[in-house]
């Protein structure tokens, strides 16, 4: 369970980016965070894993307070918070397997990390997860030789290798074409269910948020404007969050089921 209470983030003397934000996520919920650019979506996710330091407030993951952690205690906590990035954040010169195993760096000693000598059980788990998302056949291929969708799958598996208690995804489809972005959203949705893993997804595409998540949280100027089921996210909610500027009306149209990948979840059929 993730519990955020009265979270505030202020940069310098400027207006707070987050204003006493409250949020509770439990179970295997898939929650979309939507809002215009500058609403505080990415800041909120990065406060959770402490890539950004909160100004005040509380963030508890399974009862453990994260805000005041430092040093080794913070590093241990971060091991259990998986993060999927918009820009993939892969090391291009390394193979897919080496990038995936980087998710275990917080669990191995310095010698194992430098020499990339990981325990056999880690290697076996990496193959299992790569097979699950359809990239096992790329294990020895350099990361820079992959398509955008394949690179994002590597990022997802790397995060899962941490054995996270929660998965954060910061605009995971922004760099992808529409078909591939739907496949990635469908993959995150199915993995959350299979692994009983709560997933928070910062996303601009409202139609995909309505299709692939169980709950939508809308932010505007650092405040929560909407928190409810996708079926309740109507034009009034859209207007309240975006002011009718950032998200055009057509983004409320549901993604046609015929456009979805009908094969095994997570298997890539395109080479975009």
Automatic annotation (TrEMBL):
Pfam family, one: ABC_tran
Organism: Billgrantia campisalis
Subcellular location: Cell inner membrane
UniProt superkingdom: Bacteria
PANTHER family from the UniProt entry: AMINO ACID IMPORT ATP-BINDING PROTEIN, PHOSPHONATES IMPORT ATP-BINDING PROTEIN PHNC
Entry annotated with the keyword ATP-binding: yes
Domain named ABC transporter: residues: 2-246
InterPro entries associated with the record: AAA+_ATPase, ABC_transporter-like_ATP-bd, ABC_transporter-like_CS, ABC_transpr_PhnC, MetN_ABC_transporter-like, P-loop_NTPase
Major localisation: membrane
Designated name of the protein: Phosphonate ABC transporter ATP-binding protein
Keywords from the UniProt entry: ATP-binding, Cell membrane, Membrane, Nucleotide-binding, Translocase, Transport
Gene Ontology MF term list: ATP binding
Membrane-topology descriptor: Peripheral membrane protein
Region (Disordered): 251-272
